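Progress note, project year one: complex with magnesium ion.
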Amino acid sequence: MLEVRDLHASYGHGDVLHGLNLHIGEGSVTALIGANGAGKSTVMRTISGLMKPTRGAVLHMGQDISGLGAERVVRRGLALVPEGRKVFAPLTVAENLEMGAFQYLIKRDTTRYQAQLAFVLELFPKLKERMDQAAGTLSGGEQQMLAIGRALMSAPKVLLLDEPSMGLAPLIVKQIFEALVALASQNLTVFICEQNSEITLRHADYGYVIESGRLVLSGKAEELVADARVKEAYLGG
Ligand SMILES: Nc1ncnc2c1ncn2[C@@H]1O[C@H](COP(=O)(O)OP(=O)(O)O)[C@@H](O)[C@H]1O
Ligand SMILES: [Mg+2]
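Model obtained:
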């Protein structure tokens, strides 16, 4: 359903991705594991339309979405939970969630908005208690739930997450991954980039390992989790 073909990307001084091929099955949890600087965020930026690939393509349901730009990629049903969460700190939880639903709110589609809001608050009931609180005052785990909730407000078919476990306690990380698995079981396609290989692969169906902008390994998550090379990538090679 989501396919990355021969993906190359650059920040202007030569490519940092050197021809990646990824297949992310519908309703699966797929993981991209790699150390700091391996190219994970660059993959996420090119899929979500924040960056244009220098070569190759991103196909969603058979259609080339590369170079469309971030807003149109959201309209095509892909939503990014960015690295470091990037919640709007001075805005309330409710306002952050509204931002994720802009495409429905500008059309005054309040039915869709209310439905997505109910869905998000059922998934993360903690957010319900904090709707009027400034996002910047939430704990790290709550901010991550908010960042995921904000992305879900656009009613995506594909959820892209850039290092969702970063800086969070293991128990919170487990809760977040369990929520992602539950979403995938409802046929949402989940694609996660992580350094935290073990817990990610334990919740994923399929995994890829990236090193210096190239894939070095791929396979079923349950097989990769035991692989010494995965542990090496996690530790930084
Ligand atoms: N804004 C940027 N400008 C220039 N180089 C960048 C920028 N962002 C990332 N890079 C470089 O691209 C490579 C991949 O980075 P990134 O995708 O952020 O890796 P990861 O997310 O796996 O830590 C690294 O060599 C990094 O230094
Ligand atoms: Mg990154």
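The first strand starts at residue 2 and ends at 10.
Residues 37 and 123 are 32 Å apart (CA to CA).
No further modelling is planned for this target in the current period.
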